[in-house]
Design brief:
Blueprint (H helix, E strand, L loop, with lengths): L8 H22 L7 E7 L6 H6 L5 E4 L14 E6 L2 H4 L4 H13 L5 E6 L3 H10 L2 E4 L4 E3 L5 H10 L2 H8 L2 E7 L5 E5 L14 E2 L1 H24 L8 H15 L6 H13 L8 H11 L5 H5 L4 H8 L15
Parallel strand pairs: 5-9
Antiparallel strand pairs: 1-3, 1-4, 2-3, 4-7, 5-6, 7-8
Helix pairs in contact: 6-8, 8-9, 9-10
Length: about 325
């Protein structure tokens, strides 16, 4: 992860021990329920290269690709997988399943690549349920895939679903948890009995829900582009910090009605020059004129004199003058 502190081996060992004890306690708690409840792990294998080959080497392990029966089915090396985890994975440290789970936890816990859940559904039924909610159709009949195994996308979807849609998605889960982009744990508990709902129909999103979903994804999209553009200049920013900085700049951009196609230029200047670069009188006057339609926003943000940029950089004590800002 960019700009993050690397935990020491001792810290990792203690964190794993705490996580292991927590899950063992949950195995004990769920063993007293009316339903036989299983622990499952949804893994984004992009954070675990070679996972498809590892899964096949673990005797007795139950797992399924969430891209089965989809146009992505052949991409087994980067597919998301649903894995049923047995209790022995946490009680026998030398067990091969235990070593696999520890590897998945180590590589995926800080990169939004793991979703843990308890469910009474068998693996086949649960995988079909998750695959159903990974695909949706809008009212105007456009089809899309939802990569719910990425915790950041799961958060976006849960924010736009109706209460009924979210309840239907969570219905097979006695408990579901993951970490948000700031690595805070998010837990959903379902007090109702686990049910296997009818998934024969299409999952629908309204046009507005679809627009909101795309809008929630803009900060991540821009953050990825900015990493590629500026590399070491942003290396001190963690992924979470960069996302928050980008989100703040997008919020500022709304003041000037900056269109989507020019957001990258505006946000980049806010990151590498000064978060308040638009408060400089010369730049603010340009942006105000652009908001009135007297010139384009791209014109307002381009070809700014170096002297102005140096002056702008002083508005923010930690900023440094930057050459080569994106003009196109």
């Amino acid at each position: 992860m960019q700009g993050s502190d690397i935990a020491s081996p001792l810290e990792n060992e203690l964190a794993w021990a705490n996580w292991r004890e927590r899950l063992l306690a949950q195995f004990e708690d769920f063993s007293h329920g009316e339903q036989q409840t299983h622990l499952y792990l949804v893994v984004d294998s992009r954070a675990n290269p070679g996972l498809d080959k590892l899964l096949a080497q673990v005797p007795g392990l139950a797992w399924a690709s969430l891209w089965q029966d989809s146009v992505f089915e052949s991409y087994v090396d980067i597919a998301p997988y649903l894995i049923r985890i047995d209790r022995t994975a946490f009680s026998e440290s030398r067990d091969i399943q235990s070593r696999l789970v520890r590897r998945l936890w180590t590589q995926g816990r800080d990169v939004h690549a793991l979703t843990w859940l308890w469910s009474a559904l068998p693996l086949d039924s649960l995988s079909k349920h998750l695959r159903h909610f990974s695909h949706y159709v809008t009212e105007d009949r456009h089809e899309f895939f939802l990569h719910l195994y990425d915790n950041r996308i799961l958060m976006r979807v849960l924010s736009v679903w109706t209460e009924g849609q979210a309840r239907a998605f969570l219905s097979p889960c006695a408990q579901l948890w993951y970490v948000d982009r700031d690595l805070n744990e998010i837990v959903y508990c379902n007090p109702a009995p686990t049910v296997d709902i009818d998934i024969s129909g299409e999952q629908m999103l309204s046009v507005e829900q679809h627009k909101d979903l795309l809008r929630h994804g803009v900060p991540d999209k821009l953050a990825m582009q900015l990493r590629d553009m500026y590399g070491a200049i942003l290396s001190d920013l963690s992924d979470a910090a960069l996302w928050h900085r980008v989100s703040d700049q997008i919020e500022r951009a709304a003041t000037y009605r900056i269109p989507d196609e020019d957001l990258l230029i505006y946000v980049a200047k806010g990151l590498v020059i000064s978060p308040a670069f638009d408060e400089h009188p010369f730049i603010q006057e340009r942006l105000d004129r652009a908001a009135l339609g007297e010139l384009t926003h791209r014109e307002a943000l381009s070809n700014i004199d170096r002297e102005v940029l140096i002056e702008v950089s002083r508005l923010h004590a930690k900023a440094t003058p930057f050459e080569g800002e994106p003009d196109q």
